[in-house]
Model the fold of this input.
Amino acid sequence: QQQVKQSPQSLIVQKGGISIINCAYENTAFDYFPWYQQFPGKGPALLIAIRPDVSEKKEGRFTISFNKSAKQFSLHIMDSQPGDSATYFCAGVHDYKLSFGAGTTVTVRA
Amino acid sequence: SAVISQKPSRDICQRGTSLTIQCQVDSQVTMMFWYRQQPGQSLTLIATANQGSEATYESGFVIDKFPISRPNLTFSTLTVSNMSPEDSSIYLCSVVFGATELFFGEGSRLTVL
Done:
């Protein structure tokens, strides 16, 4: 049973647009919520992460919004660029162990 | 962040054989893990590689199939034993660096014929 549900499975956005990926979790023991970016043939790279006592975290064009009561969090990619085309995974962490969402393939059209 | 090197980066193996994957980190790390990513899928935790003791396996993974060694704080190996085509996956080493950040190697892509 997947502990983190991620949607959509894929999305297409125009260059300069906003990409939004949503995740929901069940395990309230999770104490850290990272997002990973993965390009074909590469390992996942840590993009941005948030703790559940924070409602929002922004790093450059990437923002995590976190709603603890709803057990939901999302990634916003502002001003999307063709180089952002990749697969994005959300995850919940407990005891340093990652439970991943299913992944979202983002395609940015020039 | 840590530099995590995995060998081999890819390999093609015959059914019934075994392959050992190495993970080398450029600094000492306490926590080290092995994940599997099946084709087009997400990542699943195989086991925690414990330094100086037996690995801790997640549900669905067993030591006879995926023996793991962790002789020191910078190195670990994962062996995929008696391989079948269903074992074709990317196997990834992950380490904790800093307080909570988890980083991955580039992965070892295994194809079993």
About this structure: Chain B touches chain A at residues 1, 4, 31, 33, 35, 41-45, 48, 92, 94, 96, 100-107, 109 (CB under 8 Å). The two ends of chain B are 36 Å apart (CA to CA). Residues 27-95 of chain B form a domain with the Immunoglobulin-like fold (CATH 2.60.40.10). The first strand of chain B starts at residue 4 and ends at 7.
